[in-house]
Amino acid sequence: MAHVSLPHDAKAGPTKPEVRAVLLSKLDLGPTNHFAEVGSCTGAVTIKAARRAGRVTAIERKAERIETTRKNLAANDVTGDVDLREAEAPEGLPGDADVLFIGGSRNYEAVLDHAVETEVDRIVMNVSRLEVAGAATEAFRERDLLEEVVQLQVSHGYELAGATSFDADNPVYMLVGGTDAVATDGRQR
């Protein structure tokens, strides 16, 4: 899997590499997919998606973050079909995306409504705050979108007094589903 280089900073943390690995597995992107992303920030997910999906539309509400995404795409030699849009979600989202990633919690309910209206096949939302994770899980359920919730906790080793100790990253809650969601017990919804 190709490395992602992020030489340009967005003054906000990118989705961590370990979380991106699980995220890409859940998104299951292929060359015929139109992937839409809410909150491109550094472009870490945008870069990975552009290497797998046929088309990518990434929206970001802050102009400086769109520019950071653009610069990081160039630094990673991404040449695929990537449309960067400065917009507030759900405005700016395409009506024909079949895979959606929600990287921030702002306006997520309106984004989920858009996903239902446009029949997005797969939706993944990453959340770092417990209270938002609970509310977002309920929002997914209310729209009959929820397939599963995954909590990721990653720790990185470092040397301490000649031995290895660990520093933990903040946990990430990953909500996974779509308009054709299958419940965790295998039943089609």
From TrEMBL:
Q: Which keywords are on file for this protein?
A: Cobalamin biosynthesis, Methyltransferase, S-adenosyl-L-methionine, Transferase
- Which Pfam families does the record cross-reference, listed alphabetically? PCMT
Q: In which pathway does it act?
A: Cofactor biosynthesis; adenosylcobalamin biosynthesis
Alphabetically, which GO biological process terms does the record hold? cobalamin biosynthetic process; methylation
- A GO molecular-function descriptor: methyltransferase activity
Keyword Iron-sulfur in annotation: no
Q: Which protein is depicted?
A: Precorrin-6Y C5,15-methyltransferase (Decarboxylating) subunit CbiT
